[in-house]
Amino acid sequence: MSEYPLTRYALVPPLNEVPRCDAYIARYMVRLFITEMLAVASLEFPLTVFTGIENFTESLTTMVAMAYALSIWTYGPISGPQLHTGLSLILLFTRRLSYPYAIVSIVAQIVGAILGCGLAIVITQKYPDATHHYGLAKLPDGSSEWQAFLMEAIAIFMIVMMILATLDESRQGAWAVAHISLFPFMFAVSVIFTAPMIAAHSGIGLNPAMMIGAAIVNNYYKDVWIYVAGPIVGCVVAAIIYEMVISNAASTARLRHWFTDRNFNRHTNYKVLDGEVPDNKID
């Protein structure tokens, strides 16, 4: 029998486990890389195409949100999809993703951003120069670096809290019904909500991989740290608060196993396993 779940078609291997070195895993690693690359390229391409077009900010926010939704629906069964460097790190941090898969995903996201930005620049022939940079967030006039940093962190905090709630294995059934099918829509809504909120203060980065890729293509790195560090900090804070406080599974026993147990299982109720709560007290 195969160690991987059997269905009519080959499934994704367990992403929270360190992969074995075999042909099946090698093929999946290639699929994972291509999936994340294409997913992020499909986000960066429209962003770069419409950068600099006047009176298009609100429409661009909606379009990018829809691009996120389409990418999640299209590539979700293969890679998640992750689409975001901070999210890959959070999946690693919360023991949903092992480090080999996280590394491949993050590299693929940056390559995808380079591909999407570069392709858009070549097709539109809007080449970057000293005053024009495409696919990059720009610090608005009158906004400080730290204002932008905090706005990026807060916005991605809100988005990641929604993501973690969707992924929460302990969520009650009534709140988990069809949650995966609704996830692309909820993600789009969260982007449409947060992007205009921070636009005047940060210029809307939200995705470290996209900003890194666009910075490489434009050869322009001013203020890029804001759009990398801000979202990552927001992701980490969201993960800590959700996993340690908000989740129904949160407990000191789970926290202890999370950081010390090599075979940590997110589906195990560590409250009962370690005797913190009697089994008959669990719904």
TrEMBL record:
Q: Cellular component per GO?
A: plasma membrane
Kindly list the residue ranges recorded as spanning the membrane. 32-53, 99-123, 146-167, 174-204, 224-246
Write one Gene Ontology MF term.
water channel activity
Pfam families (UniProt xref): MIP
The secretion signal range is: none
Entry keyword set? Membrane, Transmembrane, Transmembrane helix, Transport
Looking up Gene3D superfamilies in the UniProt record yields: Glycerol uptake facilitator protein (1.20.1080.10)
Superkingdom per UniProt:
Eukaryota
Sequence similarity = Belongs to the MIP/aquaporin (TC 1.A.8) family.
Name of the protein described by the UniProt record: Aquaporin
